[in-house]
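User: Continuing from earlier, I have the next pair ready.

Assistant: Great, send them over.

User: Here they are, in order.

Assistant: Folding the first of the pair now:
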Amino acid sequence: MLTVALSKGKMLDLTLDVFRRAGYALGNLSTESRLLVFPCPEIGMTFLIVRPTDVPTYVEYGAADVGIVGKDVLMEQDSDVYEPLDLGFGACRIAVAALEGQTSRDRLSSKIRVATKYPKITERYFNQRGIPVEIVKLYGSIELAPLVGLADRIVDLVETGNTLKAHGLVEVECIAKSTARLIVNRASLKLKHAVVTELIKKLRTVNGTPAEPRIPPPRKSSRGVRQTVKRTRT
């Protein structure tokens, strides 16, 4: 059985649609159910429905063989997983935003205070530009921070920009683009190589992503071969 961790929320419907178009019968798996585990023995898979921020953890530690998660989560967590496929859907961007009319830096000698739920991405971005920054970690309602004077800037995930506009904010810079990615546990890639590569192939076909170089099976040690050759030469 291949265990697949799926991100609950907005991305789940899109993910299920991709799997169905790839030919996987998902049985009673739906966004309406409160169940978190969906065994589908007819296709040799078990699906786990988890928070997006938890998907890389499930995959990295082997509780799931593969997972579907946004690139923004992977950039923030820097998990030790294999990322073979950009699925293309769920397109957003990680952006810096400020109140309209306050997009220029007034305090050049002091730190910019930035509210975000992406502290690692934010710190890395501003540090690379030599801009001193104080990060305020929030878990939601990021747009509120500049309105109440909590922060000079925010870094958040933006899809259409309508939420920013509704709060009088404008996008200053785009840090990175984010789409849904297929990630794979490194051990599972070796132990379940055939089924994992078959999944990648089917999802890539549905998504229309250009074929990438074939993922080679785990290499066997050639130490014994070298020893045999050496003895033959002597």
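And the other member of the pair:
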Amino acid sequence: MPVNTTNSRFAVVTGSSSGIGLAVTSALLNQEVKVLAMSRKKGELEPLLSHYGEQLIWCQGDVTQAADLDKLAALAKQIGPVDYLVPNAGIAQLGDSLDAEAFNRQWAVNGAGALNTLAALRNQLASKASVVFIATFLSAITFPGLAAYIASKSALKAQARTLAVELAKAGIRINLVSPGPTATPIWGSLGLDETSLNSVATSVCQRLLTGQFLEASAVADAIVFLLSDAARGIYGQDLVVDAGFTLS
């Protein structure tokens, strides 16, 4: 679903150097949207930076650092009002379900990092802006070892839905996308050995109606739709993109 580019649009995407964030950045660039991309490293953004020139601006930063978010907001102010915001930066770590520190580490990025990104850019948003937070399909089920990750995303969802009501009168439309099993580097960060990771992947694929992990671009397309004017009547909703995993 194309984003309306009748007028020049400007987007900010965090966690943009790989996976879903990279796919969202690429999709928006393809639709002639100017993008300010934030990540700790350039990573896979390098080819896009070379190809798109001034249409893509990179900001090195960590969403858990207030100074980095202030730098992001200052750059956004120089470029123009932010029409689209995707606070995508996230991490997933296996841990004991009663390990409070595991929750704190993941909430710092997945929850507080996303909400603080919106707070830092609040005054830079356009008069009619769209924000899409990234939740998870796992909120509807369970996954041993990922309780802290699920909790961080579920808490974000609760706050995002309330923010959708609170900020609607200001012209800010907020929604969420919950990706299902997606072929991104985050799986490799779980700390599983290759045999265990392959076993998990095989088990997961058996529940996917397509029989294979989603491509990041499939999730990005859903995010871009919710950002677009085509979704202008949608507020506070969580669009689950999981190839049918939660149906079985």
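Worth noting for the second one:
The chain has eight helices and seven strands. Helices lie at 19-30, 46-52, 66-79, 100-110, 112-121, 147-167, 194-205, 216-227.
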